[in-house]
Amino acid sequence: MNDTFRKSINWSLGIAVITFVLAAIFSIVSTYTLSGVTWAMGMVVVLIIVFIGIFFDMLGVAATAADEVPFHAMASEKVKGSRHAILIVRNADRFANFCNDVIGDISGIISGTASAIVLVQVAIALDVNDNGPTQLIISVIFTSLIAALTVGGKAIGKTLAITFSTNIVFQVGKLFYFAEDKLKLRILKDARDKKKKQNSKRK
Which residue ranges run through the membrane (predicted)? Predict the structure, then answer.
């Protein structure tokens, strides 16, 4: 089996497992949160979920749009986070896959489920008949609003991501640096480091 194909399969299986776990966590947390709040607070929760999806979509686009050249100059001056920013750009396909597809799609699915819960709460609060026209109107308006915010927000996010890709990736790089330096959590690994280790073992 081709080595590249094997790595692709391993990545796909790994990301599928991560998606399953994150989706379960998002679903449990959102459902639990919505079960104990008013419909107004429920709408706020739904909006937060939507904005999480928009934010991570912006990060994914920024990674694919950024150029690693500016970060090399920063790395030469030992600027914290610059090396991690280079790794993000080099792994832009996987980083974008996680941000756009995993977090973005999960947010879209969970926001839809959460919206349904909020609509039920609104119907109960307004004492609306489930089969009445008022319920339909509320459902259409709320669903359309969430869809408009999601699409419009992602459109704005993509523009910002392309325009400020270097700065956005650098900020994420600094976050990754903090995670590795303070929490000892390495999120991205450099393939070149692996090769160096393999060569040193052979010697």
Answer: 12-33, 39-66, 102-124, 136-156
